[in-house]
Amino acid sequence: MPNNKLGKRGRRQKTVNEEKFIERLIKISRVSKVTKGGKKLSFQAIVIIGNGKGKVGVGIGKASDVINAVQKAKNDGIKNLINVPITKSLSIPHNVVGNFGACKIIMRPSVEGSGVIAGSSIRTVLEVAGIKNVIAKQLGSNNLLNNAKASINALNALTTKSHILKKRCLNI
User: Which residues cross the membrane (predicted)?
Assistant: First the structure.
């Protein structure tokens, strides 16, 4: 078979970008659905995926076994990737607040060498994104998924000086 990217039946194989992603599993839970015939058990997985250079996403997957649930969560995380602006000191450009449900996340840039000062899934999101110096505080709910999504919302709200100038059509 020639060395082209066509699989069986001449279809093009789906390939994700060649960049390597860091995957962190933050939660696996066994969930059940009660039907007329009894309880149907399945597993839910929450995965945080990123490249360590400013891209990060949260994925959720549910399947009848753990391996498929984790794989679905990885694929969902790749679909939900966002770009995060990172400063030269591997921090965030400015203070930011993110909300999701009853969760509120407050993030502040920190000096170089201080490390990631954050708890639970927020720390994982920041590390996978490649942010090394930041202080984060979690308020409200302790739900891992909601905290991860709130931190993604906070990182999505970050802007840089050049982005604002471009938005206002200014050239400086």
Answer: none
- 153 and 93: one domain? yes
The 10s digit of each residue's pLDDT in 155-171 is 999 988 777 788 888 77
Between CA 91 and CA 132 the distance in angstroms is: 6
Instruction: Report residue 123 CA to chain centroid gap.
Output: 11
* CA dihedral sign of residues 158, 159, 161, 162: positive
Q: Per-residue pLDDT tens for 107-142?
A: 999 999 999 999 888 999 999 999 999 999 999 999
The helix (run of H) or strand (run of E) holding residue 89 is none
Residue 94 maps to a domain: yes
Q: How many domains in the chain? A: 2
3-state secondary structure of 6: strand
Separation of alpha carbons 133 and 127, rounded Å: 10
User: What phi and psi values does residue 126 have, to the nearest 5 degrees?
Assistant: -65, -40
| Mean pLDDT for the stretch of residues 51-69 | 95
How many Cβ atoms sit within 10 Å of the Cβ of residue 81?
19
Host domain of residue 153? 84-163
- Give the pTM: 0.83
What CATH number did the domain enclosing 28 receive? Answer: 3.30.160.20
